[in-house]
Amino acid sequence: MNDFEKFYADSFRGLRAGAITKGRIIQVKSDGVIVDVGSKSEGFIPLGELVDNELKNLHPGDEIEVFIERLSDSDGFVKLSRQKAQGVRSWDMIEAAFQKGEPVDGKITGKVKGGMTVSISGVNAFLPGSQIDLKAPKNTDQLIGHNFTFKILNFNQKGSNVIVSRRALLEEERNKLRGETLTSLKEGSLIKGKIKNLTDYGAFIDLGGIDGLLHISDMSWGRISHPGELFSVGDTIEVIVLTFNPENEKVTLGFKQKKTDPWASAEGKYPPGQKVFGKVITITDYGIFVELEEGVEGLIHVSEIDWLEKSIKPSKYFSIGDRVEAVILKVNKEDKRISLSIRQLKPNPWEIIKDKYTVGQRITGKVKSFADFGAFISIDEGVDALLHVSDMSWVKRVKHPSDVLKKGQEVEVIIQNIEPEKERISVGLKQLTTDPWLDNIPAKYSLGDSVTGKVVSITDFGLFVELEDGVEGLLHISEIEKKSDAKLEDLFKPGDELRTRIVNVKPADRKIDLSLKTMIG
Q1: What Å distances lie between residue 124 and 96, 139, 168, CA to CA?
Q2: What is the spatial distance between Cα 106 and Cα 146, in angstroms, rounded to a whole number?
Q3: What is the C-alpha separation between 435 and 433, in angstroms, rounded?
Q4: 84-137 pLDDT, tens per residue?
Q5: If we measure between CA atoms, which residue out of 10, 33, 148, 153 comes closest to residue 82?
Q6: pTM for the full model?
Q7: In 390-476, where do the E strands start and end?
Q8: Among 404, 378, 377, which Cα is nearest to 390's?
């Protein structure tokens, strides 16, 4: 061996191409790094053989691990690579993790057909789409650039083939949590969970490897139309276990049950007569529902909105969210109902009416409206009195109030009855004059008198004959001489004038009987 060969052998003693060794940085240059690898040898790592953006973090004296590519190049340097050193170590680490079934950390770097690419310490691995998550993600782009932990499903260093799974680890973690959760689940216990999904009827909560259902009816003591009013997907909430069936692992949960049912103390908290404020939450044709507190609402019936206006349409006066004041009328704890009133916050005008008017008093009012049974006379602001058809005339048979009165007409009447508790007052028109049946009619019409009148109506049992304005007599069928098969409608017509004889006068019954048969005396 000559001197050069001896020097070469001494210089590279202990070094071997294709091996990994440690070296110390001697100099950091713009195009690479000079490294002392021992045995009187220096090596050079070109910039392209360094790990990404590593140059700025390297300083003279730093110890680094390098891969020996060649023992000597044209400049006499040992050719080194950081990337290959890291690659060898990465493959060794991946192989060891695969053999032991241990997880590895990696970064999702991009999308490929059928899945995504993952960088594990510089080694590219394939993540199948089915192994990304427990459920296929809707948007995989948002995963790129993020670090996750993976399980190695397949490893082949020769073929540079690594297949990983994130789902496998999530399933293992879920099964572990599931076991822990199942052992700790019991009815009545409090447990935290994460909202996975919202539906119209409730929310599904991940309790740790097992899902529970929080029904919408168990979310709040108050009224809600959709779970989204209270919760969002991803929220972590504390719930109470209502029921748990270990056989089918079915769990029902409650949220409102963490608070006491507000109806338990409603009777004591809301005594009759107490004034309260509440928020309008529902409007119907028959009234408005007012929330007094979460879970406690009361109804203001349309009849309890105003003393005077009886046909109020609530939607014209109130809107959802309005804050209103009312007074408690009644609390029914069992049925969870509270009756409220707005009108009773104000004086009852009917109490004023009772003091203002007396039975027998003559008053003037205006005809407001008609019904088949009578007319409503406005006598005070918002107060109407009923004038029944039977109180319009002593003698006329009034079929409809419009036969006697007109809307808007001012009319004098006499108060007949006042019932403030029923919000009712009745008046009479005929009472303004003396009842002719008490004096005039008995004096004017006597038994045996011959009288003339007009047929006003025909019935099965006879004819009604008007003797004068409003005064009628009955001509019974038995007092009419006719052929046995003849009908009254064939013999008489309304408006026919007849001369008859009075056969009976009954003032108490307001009745005069007539006859067409042979006159008496």
Answers
A1: 16, 22, 19
A2: 9
A3: 6
A4: 777 777 788 888 888 888 899 999 999 999 999 998 877 889 999 999 888 888
A5: 33
A6: 0.49
A7: 410-419, 424-428, 450-459, 462-468, 471-476
A8: 404
Q: Is the pLDDT of residue 518 over 70?
A: no
Rg (CA), the chain: 52
pLDDT band at 520 (very low <50, low <70, confident <90, very high): very low
Ramachandran assignment for 240, one of left (phi > 0), alpha (psi -120 to 50 degrees), beta (any other): beta
Greatest Cα pair distance in the chain: 185
Give the Cα separation of 201 and 219 in Å (integer).
Answer: 11
Are the C-beta atoms of residues 220 and 295 closer than 8 Å to each other? yes
Task: Enumerate the β-bridge partners of residue 443.
Answer: none
**Residue 491 carries which DSSP code?**
H
Is the distance from CB of 394 to CB of 436 less than 8 angstroms?
yes
100 CB-near residues (< 8 Å, 6+ apart): none
pLDDT at 76 (0 to 100): 63
- Under a CB-based contact definition with an 8 Å cutoff, are residues 295 and 263 in contact? yes
The label of the residue with tokens 């005077």 reads 308
Nearest to 150 by CA among 192, 119, 114, 113: 119
d(CA 95, CA 233) in angstroms, rounded, equals: 39
Do 366 and 409 touch, CB atoms closer than 8 A? Answer: yes
CA distances from 248 to 171, 210, 243, 244 (A): 19, 11, 12, 9
The Cα 175–Cα 131 span in angstroms is 16
Gap between the Cα atoms of 475 and 514, Å rounded: 5
Domains of the chain (ranges; CATH) run 3-86 (2.40.50.140), 185-258 (2.40.50.140), 262-345 (2.40.50.140), 349-432 (2.40.50.140), 436-515 (2.40.50.140)
Instruction: List phi, psi (to 5°) of 68.
Output: -85, 110
Q: Which neighbouring-strand residues pair with 465?
A: 455, 473
C-alpha closest to that of 512 among 482, 476, 469: 476
Collapsing DSSP states into helix, strand and coil, what is residue 149? strand
CB environment 447-485: b (16+ within 10 A), e (fewer):
eeeebebebeebeeebbbbbbeeebbbbbbeebbeeeee
Query: In this structure, what DSSP letter does residue 489 have?
Result: H
CB-CB contact of 355 with 300 (8 Å)? no
CA angle, corner 16, sides to 73 and 40, nearest 5? 65
Please name the helix (run of DSSP H) or strand (run of DSSP E) that holds residue 269, with its range, or none.
Answer: helix 266-269
Query: Are the C-beta atoms of residues 348 and 297 closer than 8 Å to each other?
Result: no
CB within 8 A of 24, min separation 6: which ones?
35, 36, 61, 62, 63, 64
Distance CA 114, CA 313 (A): 63
C-alpha span between 194 and 204 (Å, rounded): 8
